[in-house]
Specification:
about 5% strand; 3 domains; Acyltransf_C; single chain; 1-acyl-sn-glycerol-3-phosphate acyltransferase epsilon-like; acyltransferase activity; about 250 residues; acyltransferase; two-stranded antiparallel ribbon
Amino acid sequence: MLGTAPAYLLSWSAWRLLSTMLPSRLYHTVDDCVYSVYQSMVLFFFENYTGVEMYLVIFPEGTRYNPELQKVISDSQAFAVKEGLAVLKHVFQQPRMKASHVAIETMKEHLDAVYDITIAYEGKLTAAGQRHPAPTMPEFLCKECPRVHIHFNRLDMREIPVEPVFFRRWLHERFEIKDKLLTTFYDSEDPEKKCRFPGESQKSPLSLTKTLPSLLILGGLTLPMLLTESGRKLYLSTWLYGTLIGWAWVSLSP
């Protein structure tokens, strides 16, 4: 995987640059092809050299849902009305299906199921019952979000349509189901249903043994760098220029 990633990134970057003046449809066609080849190589590596089971995680929503971005939500709901789709409240209306479709189509011979995962955060409601944005890392560390609820739904590969038109509709139906789950989780007046998902639950407490090793490793790598002048300069430069490059990338990327 590490060996193919640089080649994939280089190929994708070159095509991104060369296709700037070309129609977006042509760019997406080649981009899907390159991504498909990369996924095939990664799958081949894991199956034939490591024997490690692999999970490919895809976020079809494209961007994180934020209840404070009312214009984005209104535009998304207006799109649903225009297309004759169900208007959703807690997720976006138009999940991006290309990456999901390419991944499933490429690996369908090696998969027996796809897992539909829905995540909700406890403690993210105002006194008026309005939903807050997803918690940030500092909020997690300050225990403003005491629990993360994760709902798993196993989907047999035979239930997933192959044709892109039917796959798009199927994916939107999955998001309708997600919206119903989240509506019950956040808005239900029944205390037995509020802030919990249906089905059998399994608690996974975060113990000190799971977090302390990471803290020691991160502290052991960071502290020596901060104790020397050259290390501090490197740390500051990486933080500063990495942030600026990240902002520039987000601003320029469509």
